[in-house]
Amino acid sequence: MVDLYTVSSRYYDEAYATLQDLRDFPFYMELARRTGGPVLELGCGTGRVLLPIARAGIAVHGVDGSPAMLEELSRKLAQEPDQVRERVTLSAGDLRSIRSERKYLLVTIPFRPLQHMYTVEDQVAALRTAAFHLEENGLLAFDVFYPRFESLLSGVGEESLEMQWTSTSDPALTIHRYFRKDAVDKINQNFTATFIYRTFERGKLLREETAPLKLAWYTYPHLGTLFLLAGLTVVEEYGSADKAPLDNGAKEMFFVLRKAK
């Protein structure tokens, strides 16, 4: 079975560059500057957050479980100046179990890798991985989406156009990404879906590729319980990357935590 990132890694950077409301990077950069690093990024993907932090002079260790995403990041890293490459360490690993001898002043899990943890056991394990790597006064930061149940539970089987962009390598190509929700599991708080990538050349369909998606969702009390089980305590919490209040109008949940005393 093809996993999500085998296909999506080829389109990831161009696709998310089109999102005007994806404003999480300044949140994580501010924390990196505040702590001074080193930073451990769990679920580093293609380096959307990691590379600018390294360019800012901060050492960062990126971990990801997808060989395809790490391959794309390594390709990009090879094009960076020596001083940037020297600040970056990359590792393949499972967020639930990876362990390093090094401790970090900042551990981040940006743009929702925790939503690929589908059981309480896996969710606690991932948070314990983050806590294990924290310096005594280090910070952990991550985000997940705030569940909007009216949309979570509806639209099963419907296909919708999410985004489209022109290929940077071939301006004659336009890629459209469609989203189709396939099933919702209310008991286990997750849904399965499919990304459909259709590539067009001057309006003619050239190819279609699909990538399976599965995401868990969290409620606020659920997260609070996970923090207790992982030995973490909340330092800051927000309803957006812009640090809006975490209230009933929030669309996201951003947390900054430290190890509980």
Could you explain the architecture of this structure?
Helices cover 27% and strands 36% of the residues. It has 261 residues and is an alpha/beta fold. It folds into 2 domains: 12-145 and 218-259, Rossmann fold (3-Layer(aba) Sandwich); 149-216. The protein has a 7-stranded mixed β-sheet with strand order 3-2-1-4-5-11-10, sandwiched between helices. Strand 8 and strand 9 form a beta hairpin. Helix 7 packs across helix 9 (220-230).
Q: What's the overall average pLDDT, rounded? A: 96
At the first level of CATH, the class of the largest domain is: Alpha Beta
Radius of gyration: 19 Å
Any idea what the CATH superfamily of the largest domain is called? Vaccinia Virus protein VP39
- In terms of DSSP E residues, the strand content is 35-45%
Number of strands: 11
Distance between the termini: 44 Å
| CATH topology type of the largest domain | Rossmann fold
Number of helices: 9
Helix proportion: 25-40%
CATH architectural label of the largest domain: 3-Layer(aba) Sandwich
Ranges where pLDDT stays below 50 over 5 or more residues in a row are: none
Biggest sheet strand line-up: 3-2-1-4-5-11-10
Count of discrete domains: 2
The backbone outline, from C-alpha atoms, is globular
In quaternary terms, these chains amount to: single chain
Order of helices and strands: HHHEHEHHEEHEHEEEEHEE
Q: Pairing-aware structural class of the strands and helices? A: alpha/beta
Q: How would a crystallographer describe the biggest sheet?
A: 7 strands, mixed
